[in-house]
Amino acid sequence: MGSKLHFQSIKHGPPLPHHDDIRAYKREYAAALDEKDPLRRFRAEFIIPSKKDLLRKNLSESEGDDQSDPRCIYLCGNSLGLQPRNIRKYIDQYLRSWAIKGVTGHFVSHEDALLPPYLHVDDAGSKLLAPIVGASPSEVALMGTLTGNLHILMSSFYRPTTERYKIILEGKAFPSDHYAVESQIRLHNLNPATAMVLIEPEDTERPILSTEQILKVIDDNASDTALVLLPGIQYYTGQYFDIPQITAHAHSKGILIGWDCAHAVGNVELKLHDWEVDFAAWCHYKYVNSGPGAMAGLFVHEKHGKVNGSSTNGEDDAYRPRLAGWWGHDKATRFQMDNNFVPQEGAAGYQISNPSVLDLSAVASSLEIFNQASMPALRQKSLQLTGYLEHLLLKYPLDNHADDRNKKLSFSIITPANPAERGAQLSILLQPGLLDKVLEILEENGVVIDERKPNVVRVAPAPLYNTFTDVWEFHRVFVMACREAVAARDG
Ligand SMILES: Cc1ncc(COP(=O)(O)O)c(C=O)c1O
């Protein structure tokens, strides 16, 4: 059915329905796209909450996985990803090995184990993580939490001098990033009023930052800036920044640059090594589906991870000073306990504590699925899903998502229209006075998205588990919700 329809092929784009082909707006069209989706088997790897379970007031009645109940429309992977089914296998193995081996679980491997003994789970985690962010395994580490890791990295990469002491970040940065930068500046007895350079959007309703604007702020502060910290994808607008160009520009001015990839990891195809990013940090509870507050990840470019194999008491020129702990110590001599810190090469040398194997098992379970699917294939599907969502929102020909009185759309999309400048998320700005009613109707219909008050909803089809039919269903309910919200507002 779908194959008989016309397609417009656009660069990076989805197989968009031809504008005047009304069949393209039918559910069958979305179902036909799902049929042809080469990644469709991955949906079954996740537990999609049922509508009934979303309303449930107790946990014990159900395991939440009775497939006869209709599933919700979950488009909130930008906030909290869904649970991979194989997480139980990983966590059961962890519980079992701890139960039967106690401390010897650190060293003893099992023939059927998904992960190596506890002593080496960090290496296994790095191998799984590296292809997802375009790094070599020695450039990444699974550890800690996002904001904690930003502090750890900034304590090493932000070493202000009297000449270079500023940090450039966006004015609308995620609060935790803002606080982290501000507190780092204060820790060095500097004043955020002079040392913190905020890139402010020209349009506060649609706070997109052009690459030109970012480069200009870097130029204007080139001589006294020590560090730039930006998001790979902006949490509010969904804008995907030009990481390679901005990184190269910062470097050309002698400035280090770090990227917060919370909304980019598992979403777009990152090439952190090739782009020569100095450092990056991210969490794994959004697109990477590892559970609320899951263990985070960091990247340190190989040029910054070099060590010469000796202790750091002044003789190692290659070594970048950092906050150290025993897990960053060279594995071969870690247990000699001689209090001579010999760092591991690469990102592993930034580890501080021994990793929680429970937490790492959760992240590994999801990374295993990502590696099966591969980021290029996921990005390809993501471009199609998000393009389809945008197409339905903006081109739906029946015009019944318009405010009937003035025939104006009751919303606009603030995320960039260029698919290369966004990931899976579209941020929709509603007309004033509509948000509460729209959210109420979406919830009643089992649609899960998130909002940023006063007027924005963020909708994120995640290519691992979302379908074109999910997008179609969302659009159907959203159209109805907007219409009812306009009617309620205008009496
Ligand atoms: C861009 C960004 N930075 C920082 C954080 C804070 O993360 P955490 O609480 O894991 O440190 C988040 C959380 O969503 C985020 O989206």
Description:
The protein has 491 residues and is α/β, with parallel strands linked by helices. A hairpin with a 7-residue loop joins strand 1 and strand 2. It has a seven-stranded mixed β-sheet with strand order 6-12-11-10-9-7-8, sandwiched between helices. The protein has a four-stranded antiparallel β-sheet with strand order 15-16-19-18, covered by helices on one side. The chain has helices spanning 27-35, 51-55, 87-101, 121-133, 146-157, 175-187, 192-195, 211-220, 243-252, 357-373, 375-395, 435-444, 468-490, and strands at 7-8, 16-17, 46-47, 73-74, 83-84, 140-142, 166-170, 196-199, 225-231, 256-260, 279-282, 297-300, 402-403, 408-409, 411-413, 426-430, 447-448, 450-452, 456-459. The protein has two domains: 2-71 and 375-490, Aspartate Aminotransferase, domain 1 (Alpha-Beta Complex), CATH 3.90.1150.10; 99-370, Type I PLP-dependent aspartate aminotransferase-like (Major domain) (Aspartate Aminotransferase, domain 2). The protein is globular and about 75 Å long. It starts with 6 loop residues before the first strand and ends with a helix. Pyridoxal-5'-phosphate binds next to helix 5 and helix 6.
